[in-house]
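Example for tutorial group B:
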C-alpha cells in the first residue's frame, strides 16, 4: 500500500485527504518512481484547496514536483536505482502527481538529479526554485550584468522570490526585494537582498512610464505589479514574468517596449524542453547556497501539507515547503 494525498469530488465539494492506495489503483506508467520528497507549490495549494483550475482529471493525486528513485522502467534509457526529478508536464494536474510515496511517469519527463544535489535539497528548490533559475537564465541570455544596475524581485518572500534573490545575489547582482511583509526584511537581507521595498509601491495601477530604475526584474506577481515593473525598467532592460500571485490581468501600455526597448520575457516551467531543464537543474546544483536552502525551507509530512495549503494561498508562507512523503 502507498500513502498519497487524494483529491476527490463529492457533489461538487472537494475532499482532500491522506489515503492508502494499492499500487494497482495507480494508472499504468512507463516508469515507476519511489518518491522521496515532494514539495508544496502555489499550484499544489490551489489544487488542494480549490481543485480547479489546476486539477483537470478526478480523482487526482496532486504534487507538481518530486524527486525519487526509479523502481521499474520499461525504457532502456532509465535504469532501476537512478535518482530523478519529475516536475511539470501536467503532473499533479492531468496525471497523478508526487504528493505520494509512488509516482508514475514517462521516461522523457525525467531529469537525472545532478550528483551534487541531494534529494531533500532538490525539493527545497522544487518547481519554484527551478522556475527562479529559468528566470535568471533569461536575464543572463539577455546579457544583463551586475554593473548594469539593480535587479528587482517581486513576491520576494515567496518560493520563487526567495530562491531568485539567493541566486541573483550569488551572481553578484544588487537585488531589491519587493514584499508585503516588512517583518521579513532580515530574512530577505540574509538571502542577499541589498534593500527591501514595500510591494504597495508597485501594486496599484501606475503611469505608462515611470522613472528608469531596474536593469532587470524577476516577477512572480503579475497584474499591476508586472505593469509597473515594466514601466520602471531601464532602457534595454528585461522583465522575466513567471507568476500571477496578484492576478492574471495585465493592463499597461506599449510605452516601455517601444520607447525604452524593454523586453518582457515569459517563463514557463511546465512544458520547458528537457535540455533547458537539465541546464537549470545543473546550474541550481552548482550555484545554490545549501545553508540558505535551510533558511528558505521547512519540512512537513503529507497530512500537514493539506493543512498548510490555505496559508500558502493567502501569502502567509515564507519561502519553500518540502514534503517528506514518507513521514
Ligand atoms: P508563493 O505563494 O510562495 O509566493 C508568492 C508571493 O507573492 C507571496 O509570498 C507574496 O510575497 C506575493 N504575493 C501574494 N499575493 C500577492 C498580492 N495580492 N499582491 C502582490 N504580491 C502578492 O508562490 P510561488 O513563489 O511558489 O509562486 C509564485 C507565482 O509563480 C505563482 O503565481 C505561481 O503560480 C507562479 N509559478 C509559475 C511557474 C511557471 O511555470 N510560470 C512555476 C512556478 C510558479 P510577499 O509576501 O513577499 O509580498
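The residue assignment follows.
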Amino acid at each position: 500500500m502507498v500513502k498519497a494525498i487524494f483529491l476527490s469530488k463529492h457533489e461538487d465539494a472537494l475532499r482532500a485527504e491522506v489515503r492508502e492506495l494499492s499500487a494497482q489503483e495507480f494508472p499504468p506508467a512507463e516508469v515507476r518512481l519511489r518518491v522521496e520528497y515532494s514539495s508544496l507549490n502555489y499550484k499544489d495549494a490551489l489544487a488542494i484547496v480549490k481543485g480547479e483550475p489546476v486539477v483537470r482529471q478526478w480523482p487526482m493525486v496532486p504534487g507538481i514536483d518530486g524527486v525519487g528513485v526509479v523502481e521499474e522502467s520499461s525504457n532502456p534509457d532509465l535504469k532501476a536505482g537512478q535518482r530523478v526529478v519529475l516536475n511539470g508536464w501536467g503532473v499533479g494536474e492531468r496525471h497523478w502527481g508526487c504528493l505520494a510515496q509512488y509516482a508514475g511517469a514517462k521516461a522523457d519527463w525525467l531529469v537525472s538529479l545532478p550528483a551534487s544535489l541531494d534529494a531533500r535539497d532538490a525539493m527545497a528548490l522544487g518547481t519554484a526554485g527551478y522556475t527562479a533559475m529559468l528566470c535568471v537564465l533569461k536575464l543572463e541570455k539577455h546579457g544583463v550584468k551586475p554593473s548594469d544596475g539593480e535587479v528587482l524581485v517581486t513576491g520576494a518572500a515567496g518560493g520563487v522570490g526567495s530562491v531568485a534573490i539567493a541566486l541573483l545575489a550569488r551572481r553578484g547582482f544588487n537585488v531589491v526585494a519587493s514584499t508585503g511583509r516588512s517583518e521579513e526584511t532580515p530574512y530577505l537581507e540574509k538571502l542577499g537582498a541589498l534593500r527591501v521595498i514595500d510591494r504597495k509601491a508597485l501594486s496599484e495601477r501606475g503611469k505608462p512610464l515611470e522613472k528608469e530604475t531596474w536593469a532587470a526584474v524577476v516577477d512572480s506577481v503579475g497584474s499591476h505589479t508586472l505593469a509597473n515593473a515594466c514601466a520602471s525598467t531601464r532602457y534595454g532592460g528585461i522583465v522575466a514574468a513567471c507568476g500571477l500571485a496578484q492576478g492574471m490581468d495585465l493592463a499597461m501600455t506599449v510605452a516601455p517596449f517601444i520607447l525604452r526597448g524593454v523586453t518582457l520575457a515569459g517563463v514557463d516551467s511546465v512544458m520547458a524542453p528537457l535540455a533547458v531543464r537539465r541546464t537549470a537543474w545543473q546550474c541550481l546544483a552548482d550555484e545554490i547556497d545549501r545553508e540558505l536552502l535551510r533558511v528558505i525551507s521547512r519540512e512537513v509530512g503529507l497530512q500537514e501539507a493539506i493543512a498548510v495549503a490555505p496559508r500558502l494561498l493567502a501569502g502567509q508562507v515564507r519561502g519553500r515547503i518540502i514534503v517528506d512523503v514518507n513521514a
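The radius of gyration is 20 Å. Compare this with the pattern of hydrophobic and polar residues in the output above.
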